[in-house]
Structures are given as structure tokens and as C-alpha cells.
Design brief:
single chain, mainly alpha
């Protein structure tokens, strides 16, 4: 990497060169290299004198931004690759029932979009799109009574959820949290 140009530490040129790197990892390596070179071999005439933020602060901010992008991409890649996949113990029907009951009880807005629900479970659009299609199909099956739940506990919970007002009823919300937690434990 010692052959990488530093452009006499002119920030616009450094960033322009950095952005041409193919991967965020390569960009991070390059920016860290430039910072190291600036500290170890400062230029005789520093073109950054008087600029705010300083060259080092500017590059460190770019590094933090790229790390955030990398973390976001890694989270999405795990979902796209199927490493993180949602399959509830009793199927999507239970998840659909829970969220539809939450809408009915106005715990969440009645106009909550399925895409917003999908965003809870998936970072990548591939998983979200598949979830949205299956959720809508399952919702239709439930309305047509073609899909039944294997969980008596869930059915009882849904009954409580849709027939009670939630003003000051923390215990019902606690049951909801616990049931969603149990569904999450059964995800594969």
C-alpha cells in the first residue's frame, strides 16, 4: 500500500481517489493509510492550514461514515444471504394475526403499511418483498378462514387484544411483548 498516492493531503483529491476504490473496505484502508502518512510524513507546505474541519478531522469523519455504511451493508447482506431468516414456530399466520390485531386494537396505527412491518424483520429489500407478498396472502387466507393457528395461546391472546381497551392495561402489552419474544426465539 506504500505506493498509494496522498495528493499532498489535498482533501478533495484524496476523497476523489478514495471514492474510486471498489469496496468500502478498500476505501477505509486507503483513508487510514492517508491519515498515517499525514502523521508520519507531514507535507512541507500544508494546503489545509486554516480549513475547518482540519484535514485529520475531515478524514476521520469520512472513515466513520464509511464504517456506518459497511455495518449497514453487512446487516443487509446477512438477510439477503439467508443467514437471518424469519420463520415463526407457528408460521407467518401468527405474525400476521398479531400485527393485524395490534392495528385493530390501535396499539399501532391502522394505516401501518406491511412494508413497515417487514422493515422490523428484514434489512434487505429481497427479504422484505417476499415477506410483504406472503403477509398479504396470509392476511387474505385468514379473512377467508383458510388459515388456522396451531397456537391456542395466540388465539386467546388475540381475543384479549381485540376486545380490551389498552388505556392503562400494561399487563396486556406485557403479554404482547412476551409472545413476540417467544416468536423471535423460534426464528431460524
Amino acid at each position: 500500500m506504500s505506493s498509494e498516492p496522498t495528493f499532498n493531503f489535498v482533501r478533495e483529491q484524496v476523497i476523489e481517489y478514495c471514492n474510486k476504490k471498489e469496496t468500502i473496505d478498500d476505501q477505509l484502508r486507503y483513508l487510514n493509510y492517508v491519515l498515517k502518512e499525514k502523521k508520519n510524513n507531514p507535507p512541507e507546505i500544508d494546503e489545509n492550514v486554516g480549513l475547518k474541519p482540519s484535514f485529520e478531522e475531515y478524514i476521520e469523519t469520512e472513515i466513520e461514515y464509511r464504517k456506518t455504511l459497511l455495518e449497514s451493508n453487512n446487516r443487509a447482506d446477512k438477510n439477503v444471504a439467508g443467514i437471518v431468516k424469519i420463520t415463526a414456530k407457528y408460521g407467518l399466520a401468527d405474525i400476521t394475526r398479531i400485527f393485524e390485531a395490534m392495528k385493530e386494537a390501535e396499539i399501532i396505527s391502522k394505516i401501518t403499511e406491511v412494508s413497515q412491518i417487514a422493515n422490523i424483520f428484514f434489512a434487505g429489500t429481497t427479504g422484505q418483498n417476499d415477506f410483504i407478498k406472503k403477509y398479504n396472502a396470509t392476511k387474505g387466507d385468514i379473512k377467508n378462514k383458510e388459515t388456522k393457528s396451531n397456537s391456542n395461546e395466540l388465539l386467546e391472546f388475540i381475543k384479549i387484544l381485540t376486545t380490551n381497551s389498552f388505556a392503562g392495561k400494561k399487563e396486556y402489552l406485557e403479554k404482547l411483548r412476551n409472545h413476540i419474544y417467544e416468536l423471535q426465539k423460534n426464528l431460524i
